[in-house]
Each structure stands twice: as C-alpha cells, then as structure tokens.
Hints:
By secondary structure, the protein is α/β, with parallel strands linked by helices. It contains 14 helices and twelve strands. The chain has one domain: 3-Layer(aba) Sandwich (Rossmann fold), CATH 3.40.50.
Amino acid sequence: MAACTPAPEPTLIETSDHCMLELRRHRGSGAPVLLVHGASAQSGTFRIGETETLVECLVRQGFDVWTLDWRASMRLVKNIYCANPSTDFTIDRAATEDVPTAIRVMRRNFGITQKIALLGHCMGGAIVTQGIAQGVIGVADVETVVVTALALFYRAAIDNLLKAQDGVLEELLLKQALLHPTTQWVDDICHQNPRDGDWDPLLQRPYEVWKQTPLRHHPCDIAICPRLSYMFGMPYLPDTIPTIHARCLPSQFGYIPVQFLLHCTQNLRRGYAAPFEPNARRRMLASTDVYLQHEPFRDLKLTLITGDLNSLWHRDSIDTMYEWLLRGQRSARPRDEVVKRVIPGYGHQDLYWGLKAPSDVFPQIVEGLRR
C-alpha cells in the first residue's frame, strides 16, 4: 500500500485573468514552503509515495507546507476551460499569474511575513524559474528555490524530440483544447463525459506506430502507462514505484491543455524557454533570449535536482541550467553557490514516489530548502 497524506480543504484563489486555483496548507511551525507540481498532474504529487510522502517529510522537518494546484492541474483545468474557453493556457501566463497570486494570498490572507521557499517540479519548475526570469517572483518574497527536473532549458530524449517536430499538436489545437491520457476525443467536453477510448486520429495513428517500435520503453498491462509515455516520455521508472504504477496512476495524471503542451514542444524545439508563438509552424520559431536573464537569479539560493535516468526531461535540462547560471562575469552570477544534484538510479516522478526516495532524495530537497 502506497503512503498517502490527506489533502486539507483548499483555499480558492483567483488570478487576474479569472482562473480559480487551489491553495492548501499543511501547517507547521517553521519556514513556509510552496510546492508547485507539474502539468497534467496535481498537488497530490507531493502527497503520495511508496513509503513516505514529501509533504509528510517536510512537516516532520518543521516546515509550514503549502501546495498549489495551478492552471495546468488535472484537478482544475477542465473547470477553468469550461468557465472561459478563451483562457490563456500558455507557460507564459502560468508563470506570470499562478505562483505570484499564491504568494500574494499567503501574505495577505494568512499573514505570512517570512521569505517563502519555492519547490517546483517538472513544468512547476519551468513556471517558477520563468516567473523569476520575468521579474514577477522576486527576492522580496522568495530567497530559496529548489527545482527538480526542469528549469529554463528544455532537453528531452530522442522520441520526444521527434514528436515535437511532427506538427500534430498544431493541428490538434484547431480541433480540441484539452487532452487526456486515456479518454477519447469528443466535440464538446464541457457537456459530454468522455469515456476511455482512442484519441483523435491525428494523435492515435502515430501512437499506434510508436507502440510497435523500440521507443516504447516499458511493455506492461497498465492501460494508462504507454499512453502517458507517448504523451510525455516515460515519466517514472516503474520498478521503483510498484504500488503506484499498479494502482495509482489514473489519480495522478489527467487533462492537460493542448496549448500548454504545444508551448512545451516549442520550447523543446528551441531548447530553452521563450514566449509562445500562436501561429508558428514547424521549424519557423523566432529566436529570442528574452527570458534568459541572469540578473533576477543573482540574490537567490538555488538547488537544482534531477535523476540521471530521467527520460521525460533529460538530465541535460538541469546540467544546462547550472552551467548557464555560472556563465559570464562573476558579478552576474548568483551570490550564493548554485547546488546541483544528479541522483543515480532515478528518473522523473520516482524522485518523489520511489521506494528509496525518502532516504536518497528528500534529504537533498530539505537541505536545499534550508539554505
């Protein structure tokens, strides 16, 4: 049986573009830390594990733990879309709105006066670091940042690189707004309850081809597993999360906005974070380094963590972020040491869920948050 930390009742918070997000508090006596999950996932990422959850660990260590379900949360995205189908689901908007709104609410509504530590995983790490680069998350509020798997530089395995070039998502976005790992496409998702079934043929046909190639990393009889792997790359090492892999995956992965996924592929094609281009076609993306600014990171205490076997976001994503932070004149680099941890034998989600994550990974996270 996997470990599971109960979820407190959420505080609903509203961004300036009217997205209703969920903020939860696991009260502790120490420093506040805000945990930001990946896209297509939810804040429960941090409340589940094979032997212990990260939330459990951090509360035990004395942290005042907060979790945010932001606009790409599987818990919220369908309601946000159906309330306003024109919602901007780009990484840009998530970076400028979602985490800054949570920080403001923590301060205004709950009286948090200390600096707030941030932990961002996967696309949570991407929106945190992009928000820092854009100046909307600043040192007045945040001093300590831990990022796992992804920051400003996007590197992936060869199959994800190939999929990012095929143009399917550009075509799919013209037909549907949300994509689910297992449910079929329907004309009106807000008024129909789609069942499990095939994706739109634009996606289903290449998926059927992919399943017959060596790029399918893990043959198993868990229905959601190969579809997750096709959508995102293999998001875990299954042998390290036996109970979660067998029983819990459908509760941990769900809808993702196609626009958000398309922005991810644009960044992957470039190799780094850049503004979304709504009308870009394959191989026609503008070159821009507008988000690659050193100055906003200078006064932060940064810890970068990934697994050496990560096949969703390659470890080069973290390696490149680390090298970029240390590039240039001394006056432009972070004042404090930038810490990088590449943990042997770990992939992506198993950094949090794995059988030995509480002894191999959690101490590295705690150390980073306490800097």
